[in-house]
Amino acid sequence: MLQFFRKIRQNLLSEGKTGKYLTYAIGEIVLVVIGILIALQINNWNDNIKKSKLEQETLYNLKGDFELNKAELEGVIKAMESNIDKSVEILNFTGNKDSDNFLLDSLLIATVSGPVFDAQNGFLNDLISSGNLGILKNVELRSKLSSWEPNLEKLARKEGYMEEAESDVIQFVIKNGSWLNVDNFNLSKSKTNLKIPKSGFVVSNNTMLSSLEFENLVENSVVYYNITLTSQKEILKLINEILDLIQLEMQSQN
After folding, report:
1. According to the model, what pLDDT value does residue 67 have?
2. Which residue ranges run through the membrane (predicted)?
3. What is the pTM of this model?
4. Distance CA 167, CA 158 (A)
5. From CA 184, how far away is CA 198, in angstroms rounded?
6. Rounded Cα distance, 30 and 101, in Å
7. How far apart are alpha carbons 148 and 5 in whole angstroms?
């Protein structure tokens, strides 16, 4: 093709048609430039298609992970609210309050079993560590995804304080009550086949209700449960915001 154009130029020069030669040469340059621009446009178009496809796949994977996180956290929050209610019920019977018809064994486990949130972060961690978070065009979505890990770390610290409060209750019961009685009661209400004997000691966990220290420890658990619950609800709010933005982006690309 280049030889063909070169031959035309040579013929024009040999015939002394300088004006036509210049016009042709300029036209040829314009055609070459147009060809280059078209090629670049095609490359850009192909790149944009690849980026769009990659973004769609990224949004799809993020949506799956955060839907799992939402379901998991909603279960955690429900269990936490139940534990708080049961722990507060214990406080209704401490001290000189009438506890004749109250069985502490039925609720004591609630003071030491605060649920923690185990987030699914695999895909997002890979996305951030690979430097590909920028594939997402939505700036607000990128910002909220970047805040995900710091928020989880904040929650983990509060869950740690909660577990310390639970440990204090556990140690108190070890010294002053019977976990075997508690476990026997809970196993009798479950579908497990595990059977354990009753305590060989004559002990009633209800006697701990008259202890001021026990009351303080249970109240401490309630406080840290509530602090943790507040953070868990903040995380759930963030999850919903992220899912809304993901859905918005997916709809805009369809």
Report:
1. 96
2. 21-42
3. 0.79
4. 14
5. 7
6. 97
7. 61
Separation of first and last alpha carbons in the chain: 42
Lowest mean pLDDT, pick from 63-77, 80-94, 124-138, 230-244: 124-138
The whole-angstrom separation of Cα 207 and Cα 235 is 39
CA distances, 94 to each of 82, 183, 199, 217 (Å): 19, 21, 23, 12
Residue 215 to residue 236: CA distance in whole angstroms: 31
Token pair belonging to 126: 């890979």
Mean predicted confidence (pLDDT) in 64-71: 96
Q: 48 is written with which tokens?
A: 């944009």
Helix (H, G, I), strand (E, B) or coil at 113: coil
- Dist CA 120 CA 143 (whole Å): 18
Torsion angle, alpha carbons of 253, 249, 121, 75, to 10: -120
